[in-house]
Amino acid sequence: MTITEVIDNRTQAPQMPRYAETFADALPDDAKIAAVRADLEQAGVKYVLACWIDLFGIPKTKPVPMSDFEALCKGKGPQFAVHSISFVPDLTSADSDQVLVPDLDAVYVCPWDTTTAIIFSDLFWEDKPYNVCPRQALKRAIYEAAQQGYSGYAGIEPEFIVMRWDEDGQPVKAFDNDPQQVGGLRPRRQAFGYDVEHSLDSMPFLKDMMDMLETLNWGLHDVVAEGAYSQFELDFHYTDLLQMADRLVFLRIALKEVAKRHGMFVTFMPKPTTGDWRSGAHINFSLRSTADPSRNLFEDSAGGWSDEARYAVGGLLSHAEALTAITCPTVNSYNGLVPRVGGFEGGTVTWAPTNITYGHNNRAAQFRLPQSRFCIENRAADMCMNVYLSLACTLAASVDGIVRNAEPGDPTDRDLYSMTTEETEAAGIRRLPRNLLEAIGHLRQDTLLANVLGPAMLDSYIAYKLDEWERYHQAVTDWEVNEYLRLY
Fold this sequence. Notes:
The protein has 15 helices and 18 strands. By secondary structure, the protein is α+β, with helices and mostly antiparallel strands. Strands 8, 9, 10, 11, 12, 13, 14, 15, 16, 17 and 18 form an 11-stranded mixed beta sheet that branches. Strands 1, 2, 3, 4, 5, 6 and 7 form a 7-stranded mixed beta sheet that branches.
């Protein structure tokens, strides 16, 4: 088996991950353990990082040597006091630790160091799935959707900005090389988006990144120089929901490792500077029937959009505000969900979603029906999201819409940025939440998404996000000083 095959031994065929309701049922059998170990040893792997996912979608681990692989796979490897570090106050110091079970269908050899493999894993606590394990929440949502005859697929469009530290220790764009002119002036430059010169300047970094992604066999299509200076987007092939979630987390790890080799760092912060384009992570979602997994349910027999697609849009619209609290999870996320920005690089409008509606190829709408593929694109999502919870909630809301025959109303196929408030209100178009607090308020009231997360994870998520909001309002920003210090 080649390294590429070891890196991801799942195929593009429909995947139905096993949701085990007990610790014992989750353990892989001896034959599977032996086969995966042999593949890893053939690839030269000496160290394994079995990773669980915390409340915010960040992987956590304790590295182990290959000599301990069998014990790891049998749930006798490292244990974790998850409740001590991950903002989950439902347990105390007197409670037992969580036990990790590696998913041997989620094995990735690190292209930047092939002696090391990452295996995505699930957490159990006292013999049951741990109720603050986002990966378990997604597996449960997949299982519940399958009981109703549906399986979900997704592609994600990750955007990020590459930065470096300057000689004064300040973060600056890595590919923004024109020097400051006398008096601090800077001549106008060609916009970064799609630009050949800027792409060529970035190729030493991009080549390493593309070579690394090619070894992963994800179907890399292209790399885009995006609208902000030093901002990039990757386009790679869609797959089933659990595999896409694992891939996005692995990608975030990998991009940071590649950048370090060039003396740079990658930020997934949606809006690091005022005049820049937002970094998003659009979710392109579709459904298939478990009875006929080869058919995309969003395309009808005549090659148009199906009733299932329309009802799925209706479900997503019904839960849009609460869903945004998961897919746009930070205070900073909402700085990007605006129609226009003063001093904007490369244009005047942001091309970011601002309204809860859907349209055919309308990029100002939260939900877009693209002209090139039969999926629903949620444009109100960014790279700070917990992708497991985001995909779980997307799946649940879509299936809910189909079950209820939820009519989405007419599409909005006009420029939302030029519509007045009176026009949007007359059309029944709601505004996306304007800040994190507003979004969290909607999440608190949404019973469907509350069921996806479960009571403990929902309470922990809301508690932390409210604390984040309060801490944000304790800080005095440069904008406030410039606006008010001498005005009043």
